[in-house]
Amino acid sequence: MNNSDSTSRDSRSADNLSLLTNLISDKKETVVLCGNPNVGKSVFFNHFSGLYVDVSNFPGTTVSISKADYKEIEIIDTPGVYGVSGFNEEEKVARDIILKADKVINVVNALYLERDLFLTLQLIEMGKKVTVVLNFMDEIKRKGIKIDSAKLSNLLGVEVYETSAVNKQGFDQLDLAIASAATGQRNFDIKIMIQQTMHEAASEAEALLILEGDEDISKKNNTYPGSADKREKIYIERRNRVSEIVDAVEFEDSKKGELFNKIGRWSLQPLTGIPILAFILILLYFFIGDFISQRVVGFTETEIGVNLFEYHVKSFIADFSETTITVDIVDSNDEIISSKEFLFPDGMNSDENLKNEFKDFSSQNGSSTDFQFGNPIVRVFFGEFGVITMTVTYLIFLLLPLVMGFYFVMALLEDSGYLPRLATMLDRTLNKIGLNGKAVIPIMLGFGCITMANVTTRILGTNRERSIVTAILQFVIPCSAQLAVIAALLSGAGPMPLIIYVVTIFSVLVVLSTILNKSLPGESSPLLIDLPNINIPRFDNVLKKTAFRSWGFMQEAGAWFFVGALGVGILDITGLLFYIQEVLAPLTTKWLLLPKEASTAFVMGMVRRDFGAAGLFDMNMTIEQITVAIITITLFVPCIAAFVVMLKERGWKEGWAIWFGTWFTAFLIGGIVARIII
Amino acid sequence: MNTLVAERKIENFVNDSTGISNATLNNAKKGNFLTITQLPEGNIRSQLIRLGLLKGQNAECLERLPGGTIILQKHRQEIAIGSDLARQIDIYIH
Asked: Could you tell me the fold of the domain covering A5-185?
């Protein structure tokens, strides 16, 4: 009876799993790699697969599955799961592949035996042929923990091999591991229950899953799933068995990973956690605020984007199209030393002499060149907000380095085990505004790029939480591009404007989120997260995550930057942009008590938030006026790309409501502050 | 070493105490050894099960943060539970 599923499955379980036939060949022996998330499974798969991996989507899902040929065997990787219970898509995919497998290599993280052995016991009780690979043995030794793997093997009734995937120790035994897979020691009660259910099921494995209440497998066998009570009984029994086994095989010599454990503990308690957070934020400021957004972006955006890319694209277009070119030469103090205007009514190619003069003049040091195209269509694509020129510079030379910088830091914090602890420490505070601790992640990302943060709100548990965070992001969080300009405006102005700014923005945050929490229906999801050990992140993993997520973000949001730019371009050539500016002028001068030109800054702020703030540089404003202006600009609408991504994520109704809401709040609060301080 | 011994001590104690509650999880104090006796219904129940927090599971209250967020430890695994959820979990404090 024991090994019957490999022979019986072809004849009896056809329909549901027939989807799998193109994925798993029936002739070769199939060996499936499975384990909990983060057990180092992929290193093993790479060892077996070599160069040739076949990655495909599992039928009907978005979960991708890798398989490869190894000697006479077919090796299949599965998504990391805590159990084969069908709780989510990954588990269902893992379950279906495991059901079809001839042998299962169960990779176990030796550091988390208590967590991982649940799956191991479930596999053994399913009657599968199993070998256990105990990974991270190097870490175990480093932490002063001893695991008696011979005893573990005895208790489980299957072979146990020790490995450490980082330096490939024990990999020479993997062939043996595959060969020695066998059915293990099964819980007697569960075995009896399986026997009683066998007449309803295609295999012992399926019988167990039916007992555990798996609806898909029950439907497939035309029977009813076991009750929730029965599942819990089996689970508790299995859990207790895991505890027994862990107690019997694991010994701790000394206090393990002392310092890291302490840091983990400290970062949870506000008294010590807040200084730790402050320290991390200071480091973050130097890395992102100074290094990435000043030095790196300063180089990529101005030197590569504007002076190289845009200059060449625009001069190429100017060869054929009506253009007025203004070239300013600036010295090292940003003072204009000389300036020239070139007129090309029929394009530069029709006036070679003037063209050469322009080329000479604009190739001087410190030159900045402004192209005004006569043709409105040309303007839309290559002008100041050109779909091709500005968007490419913005996306690739400004946003990409920033987004990568942020994702890099997030991956570091995530892999070090800090992020879940930060979420835990802030949970109670965020509860007050209807969120749980996890909301800190999109909010932190918002200080980098609101568009990126809008996409990340997906990690939140309920629609209600996503709405609250999305609103907070668009209303009050200034993105890094905007922060840089605000910091420059405030520098040298003393602490007062900064204090007024922070207090005002923070008050709006509190009032806004309280109103949303009170008025939005439904309930928010509670905090429930696994806190991994604090450790030093693996650099290659962090880089991989950074690259993967940055690419994902560019795919997700990139196109919308072009759409946004096109929209603004159309507003520009139809004169609507000018019209909005005129409408805003009285509001700016009479209500906000700012110069008339500030309305231009607001309109520009709709396109790119830093444009808005940067527009304020050139105006002669008092410190009080600057304070009002940056408060208004911060509260004002998100940039066009953030807006479009928000519409896509949150729907038209909510998106527009937030957008108009920011207009109203920005001018209301800005005006009130103006009345008080000016 | 100490925690292991203590947990083993509870292990023997569980079988009699399963089903009897004397507190909810938000009442747990730092250093309490406890057994989970009742879980809330609904979606969150399966999430708790996945993390290994089942009826009958023993754990130690590792931290209780201001405001009532609870950190549970079972062996080396640490799990953070928001205070509202903790209020819905019945426990037996040993």
From this structure: Rossmann fold (3.40.50)
